[in-house]
Amino acid sequence: MKIKEWAEEDRPREKMLLKGVTSLSDAELLAILIGSGNNEETAVQLSQRILHSVNNNLNALGKLSVKDLITGFKGIGEAKAVTINAALELGKRRGITIPLQRPSVRTSQDVYQLFYPILCDLPHEELWIALTNRSSKVIGKIKISQGGTNETSADLRLILKAAINALATGILLCHNHPSGNTTPSKQDDLLTSRLQKAAQLMEINMLDHIILADGNYYSYSDEGRI
Fold first, then answer.
1. How much is the mean pLDDT over the chain?
2. Do 225 and 183 touch, CB atoms closer than 8 A?
3. Could you give the residue ranges of the DSSP H alpha helices within the chain?
4. In whole angstroms, what is the distance from residue 127 CA to residue 111 CA?
5. CA 81, chain centre distance (Å)
6. Taking the chain, what is the end-to-end CA distance rounded to the nearest angstrom?
7. What span, in angstroms and rounded, lies between the C-alpha atoms of 152 and 149?
8. Is residue 212 a contact partner of residue 174, using CB atoms and an 8 Å limit?
9. Which residues contact 97 (CB under 8 A, 6 or more apart)?
10. pTM over 0.85
11. If I label 73, which of 24, 85, 139, 156 is the partner at 20 to 30 A Cα–Cα?
12. Predicted confidence band at 98 (pLDDT cuts at 50, 70, 90)?
């Protein structure tokens, strides 16, 4: 039976999209790389046989040359062999790469510096959020909306969905005032209050709302309003 005839949730690519990459076996991951098998085996079966030949050891697989793969396995040509070698080399390099350091946000100044490069020169308002984990590390920055020169709007559902999907424990709100006046408007106050209440229901902390202008900012947290 060809892979296309399998149940959709059992096909490697569809399974990855449906359940996430960690749900795939080594053979299924390898099958995605090679794309197809041969006249006698599906891509997964061929991948299983390749892995079996090295005792299911990925380090051993990485030592096989392009020539070894081509001559050793029917259905593996130069393009597939190069793809396998390249993927394993990339994995090896990832293992020795220093992990990216996520910025920490512990003060309003940290939030200001996080968003200043994005918002400082805009002629219109934009509303962004930063999502944080329990260690106050930023795990995501998302643009929520864009408005005119005076105000922008926010969909609380969109903000909370982003926070829940990221498993965030904290939300930081930031938008700019192109006028240069950082004084909150009534709409800013209402948004802050509504988001804080909605986030509490989801056990997510509304940490601050920063209103940013060129060289200056207003912090609801610093002013004791959160």
1. 90
2. no
3. 12-19, 26-34, 43-53, 58-62, 66-72, 78-96, 108-119, 156-165, 186-201
4. 13
5. 30
6. 61
7. 8
8. yes
9. none
10. no
11. 24
12. low
Mean pLDDT of 1-20: 70
CA distance 86 to 1: 29
DSSP conformation letters of 130-157: EEE-TTSBEEEEEEEEE--SS-----HH
The CA distance from 122 to 208, in Å, is 21
Q: Are 152 and 126 in contact (CB under 8 A)?
A: yes
Cα 79 to its chain centre, rounded Å, is 30
Token readout for 114 is: 């996080």
At 12, give phi and psi (nearest 5°).
-50, -50
As a whole number, mean pLDDT of residues 87-104 equals 83
- For residue 98 the two structure tokens come to 């220093």
Long-range contacts of 182-185 (CB under 8 A, 24+ apart): 182/211, 182/212, 182/213, 182/216, 182/217, 182/218, 183/211, 183/218, 184/211, 184/218, 184/220, 185/151
DSSP letters, 30-61, are HHHHH----SS--HHHHHHHHHHHTTT-HHHH
